[in-house]
């Protein structure tokens, strides 16, 4: 009958009885309660820098992209042979269902590559083995390919890495300078210094190497004797060696360019270049009469960022977070001497993670200020607003603990979860304090222990219900963390779930104690200036 009158079932009555005993004990021991809360918040804050760091959680795309990079100048036949060998090695991994390979990319492609570069897409079967285990086995299987640099990743991840740093790897160490030979030497020194860093995989230097080239030095004096200008000679040589579009052929709705250039056997033998006939006002003459042709070596490519020459040492991570790997890499390279005018730049996911952390930290400060202004506009009390906002660091305790227990690194996704908690965790304090004000202002309850106990018990059910509903809604996102599509939402759910638990439990004791110690005058001021409107 009593349960019916009060509308409480046996479970709620039990919870309220326990809560009442805890509240009375907390009122008698305020220092241990507040001290414990402060200690937990401090421990959580101190442990945050020790969490792993990455830009975004690792994706589970169900497909792997393997980049096979051979020395520039490798013939198409050899590249095809080694590409076939790579596909056979990949198929030795149980999860590899099928492969598809692209060797080289067209010259007009956005990311043009020579035939020394192959991309192999691997379709993976569902497996109980983790993604890192499968990628590790793929790397070991491909290690037998001679002279090849291997980069193992996933399609979306590769594209994301390329957007972030211009290379298809998680970590990009860019060396800037003027002399290409010095850049290559320093890149090799970087590679040797960091090759034993734990967690580093697919370590390689951007394929900037010396390849055979033909250099043509035009003798301006001799050219003028035959009535030739440098522009005429350049156009003739370009047409002979690279080709020139002279017409088009219509084929239905399609058009085909007609390109004139030297036959393949002439272009393949640099020793014959001097015999190329050049049209002059005095008739045809061999090129060697007006130019010196020599065989030499030169770089296969020259890359620049912001008008500065650079070379890249690139790598992925395996079994360790990006932040920890880059921190150790920076430590090993800190003492490496660089010539004047040369410098290193750490880019890729590490740099993006740092930039995102700074931006999200700024947004967090703005959101905290916004929450405070909204609370103050309602309660008209700095003290009451700060008491409510004390739930935010108490939520941090559970969030950090949840990240540690789940093994999740600190990423953009988890940082978004922390910002989301600023509003969710303040809700419990709002429910309680607005009810305290209602009891004092509308029901005439005198401020003191009994009023706070009554208000806390009457708000226990809605506080637990809202926390429980939110927590249950997050459970599907927390299960099967490696499932495709959950990579971003799982860390958010882990952070919010942990924060809900700690803020709800700590708020049960801390908020009533703080209100009893410092909320009397603040509540009186709030009632006098604003009245009471229960939330």
Could you characterize the architecture of this molecule?
The protein is of the alpha+beta class and 535 residues long. The chain folds into 3 domains: 2-50 and 380-530, Multidrug efflux transporter AcrB transmembrane fold (Up-down Bundle), CATH 1.20.1640.10; 63-210 and 307-349, Alpha-Beta Plaits (2-Layer Sandwich); 211-299, 2-Layer Sandwich (Multidrug efflux transporter AcrB TolC docking domain, DN and DC subdomains), CATH 3.30.2090. The chain is 53% helix and 20% strand. The protein has 19 helices and 15 strands. It has helices at residues 2-6, 10-28, 30-47, 76-91, 131-142, 155-165, 180-194, 220-225, 230-241, 264-268, 322-333, 349-379, 382-389, 391-406, 412-441, 449-458, 460-478, 489-518, 520-530; strands at residues 63-69, 96-105, 113-124, 149-153, 171-176, 200-205, 210-218, 244-251, 254-260, 277-280, 283-286, 291-299, 303-305, 308-317, 343-348. Strands 5, 6, 13, 14 and 15 form a 5-stranded antiparallel β-sheet that branches. A 4-stranded antiparallel β-sheet has the order 2-3-1-4. Strands 7-12 form a two-stranded antiparallel sheet. β10 (277-280) and β11 (283-286) form a beta hairpin. α3 crosses α14 (391-406), α3 runs antiparallel to α18 (489-518) and α15 (412-441) crosses α16. It is elongated and about 115 Å long. The two termini are 30 Å apart.
């Amino acid at each position: 009958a009593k349960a019916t009158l009060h509308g409480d079932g046996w479970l709620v009555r039990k919870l309220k009885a326990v809560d009442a005993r805890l509240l009375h004990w907390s009122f008698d021991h305020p220092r241990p309660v507040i001290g414990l809360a402060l200690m937990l918040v401090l421990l959580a804050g101190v442990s945050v820098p020790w969490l792993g760091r990455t830009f975004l959680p690792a994706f589970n795309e169900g497909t792997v992209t393997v980049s096979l990079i051979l020395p520039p100048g490798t013939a198409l036949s050899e590249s095809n042979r080694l590409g076939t060998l790579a596909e056979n090695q990949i198929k030795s991994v149980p999860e590899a269902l099928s492969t598809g390979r692209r060797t080289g990319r067209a010259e007009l492609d956005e990311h043009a590559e020579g035939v020394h570069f192959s991309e192999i897409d691997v379709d993976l079967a569902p497996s109980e083995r983790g993604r890192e285990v499968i990628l590790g086995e793929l790397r070991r299987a491909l290690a037998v390919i001679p002279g090849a640099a291997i980069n193992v990743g996933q399609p979306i991840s590769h594209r994301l890495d390329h957007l972030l740093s211009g290379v298809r790897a998680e970590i990009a160490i860019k060396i800037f300078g003027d002399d290409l030979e010095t850049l290559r030497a320093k890149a090799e020194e970087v590679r040797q210094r960091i090759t034993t860093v734990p967690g580093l995989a697919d370590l390689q230097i951007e394929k900037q190497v010396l390849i055979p080239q033909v250099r043509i030095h035009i003798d301006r004096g001799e050219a003028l004797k035959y009535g030739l200008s440098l522009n005429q000679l350049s156009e003739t040589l370009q047409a002979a060696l690279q080709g020139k579009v002279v017409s088009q052929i219509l084929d239905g709705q399609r058009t085909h360019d007609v390109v004139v250039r030297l036959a393949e056997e002439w272009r393949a033998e640099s020793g014959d270049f001097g015999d190329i006939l050049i049209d002059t006002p005095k008739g045809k003459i061999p090129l060697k009469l007006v130019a010196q042709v020599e065989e030499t070596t030169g770089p296969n490519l020259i890359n620049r960022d912001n008008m500065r020459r650079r070379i890249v040492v690139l790598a992925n991570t395996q079994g360790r977070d990006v932040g920890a790997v880059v921190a150790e890499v920076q430590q090993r390279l800190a003492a490496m001497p660089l010539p004047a005018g040369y410098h290193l730049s750490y880019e890729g996911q590490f740099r993006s993670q740092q930039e995102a952390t700074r931006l999200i930290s700024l947004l967090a400060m703005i959101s905290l200020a916004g929450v405070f202004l909204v609370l103050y506009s309602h309660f008209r009390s700095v003290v009451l607003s700060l008491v409510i906002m004390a739930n935010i660091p108490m939520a941090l305790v559970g969030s950090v603990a949840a990240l540690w227990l789940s093994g999740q690194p600190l990423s953009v996704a988890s940082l978004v979860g922390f910002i989301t908690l600023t509003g969710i965790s303040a809700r419990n304090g709002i429910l309680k304090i607005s009810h305290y004000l209602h009891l004092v202002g509308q029901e005439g309850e005198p401020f003191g222990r009994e009023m706070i106990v009554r208000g806390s018990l009457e708000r226990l059910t809605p506080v637990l219900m809202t926390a429980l509903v939110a927590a249950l809604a997050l459970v599907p996102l927390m299960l099967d963390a490696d499932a495709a599509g959950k990579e971003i939402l799982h860390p958010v759910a882990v952070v919010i779930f942990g924060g809900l638990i700690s803020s709800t439990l700590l708020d049960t004791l801390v908020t009533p104690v703080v209100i009893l110690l410092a909320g009397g005058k603040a509540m009186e001021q709030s009632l006098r200036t604003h009245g009471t409107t229960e939330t």
